[in-house]
Amino acid sequence: MHEFAHPLLLSFALGVVGTPALAGPDWLETLDAGRTVLTAQDTTGAGVLSTIAGSLSPGDGEDVFLIEIQDHLGFAATTMVTAGATEFDSQLWLFDMDGFGLLGNDDDPAGGVGSFIAAPSDDGLTLELPGPGLYLIAITEKGNVPVSQNGLFPLFSFRSPTEISGPDGFAGGDPFGEWSGETGAGGQYVILIAPTPGAGMLFLVAAAMGRRRRG
């Protein structure tokens, strides 16, 4: 269904060098990214991003970023555990800039505990993104999900861990206002965003994150 997903993931996993070396991620989380629509970390001053890097920790179980998407038909995003780029079992979420759900995924359909989102959703609710513009992308640990503003009802409902879901939960027609679920030990993460950055980016970013941990 998402034919471009596997070549995208494979190119990162193999780390085939095809572009000049880069210093690190396009966006490195500043202090702590927010967890809601109003507190999302604004990355738009950096332009269209290929990579976002940051970390989650106990008590800080969600990071939300405001991003610009120009190619809404080619958009895809993934977290990958290859080369230690992401250190925990992740979930990825995409919302419009008002917090209405578009896409969510727990486990990448290609395998592993990374996450992958792209339209169309498997349930047919999000056939494509609305258009170029500003969106919210969020990362959480497994089991921590977006819920309605009263904190009671989920926006997404996964039929299986590998489903790329549209907003088919009980509160699917509402903007998210909170998160519900356990937060674990967390760790470093890297979100890779397509249209694909240069091949080999994953390993360069992972190396940069390694230097950050040692610093």
How would you sum up this structure, described in words?
The protein is mainly beta and 215 residues long. The protein has one domain: Jelly Rolls (Sandwich), CATH 2.60.120.380. 11% of the residues lie in helices and 29% in strands. The strands form 3 sheets. It has a 6-stranded mixed sheet with strand order 2-4-9-6-7-11, with no helix packed on it. It has a 5-stranded mixed sheet with strand order 1-3-13-5-8, with helices on one face. It is globular and about 40 Å long.
Strand content: 25-35%
Globally, the shape reads: globular
Work out the helix count: 2
**What is the mean predicted local confidence, pLDDT?**
82
Compute the CA-based radius of gyration: 16 Å
Uncertain regions spanning at least 5 consecutive residues: 3-7, 9-23, 196-215
Largest sheet: spatial strand order = 2-4-9-6-7-11
Number of strands: 13
Number of domains: 1
Largest sheet: 6 strands, mixed
- Structural class assignment: mainly beta
Distance between the termini: 42 Å
Give, in order, the helices and strands.
HEEEEEEEEEEEEEH
> What is the fold named in CATH at topology level?
Jelly Rolls
Level-2 CATH architecture: Sandwich
Helix content: 10-25%
Look at the structure and give the CATH class: Mainly Beta
Outline the secondary-structure elements.
Blueprint: H1 5-14, E1 27-28, E2 41-42, E3 51-56, E4 62-69, E5 76-79, E6 90-96, E7 101-105, E8 116-118, E9 133-141, E10 145-147, E11 164-165, E12 178-180, E13 187-194, H2 201-214
Parallel strand pairs: 1-3, 2-4
Antiparallel strand pairs: 3-13, 4-9, 5-8, 5-13, 6-7, 6-9, 7-11, 10-12
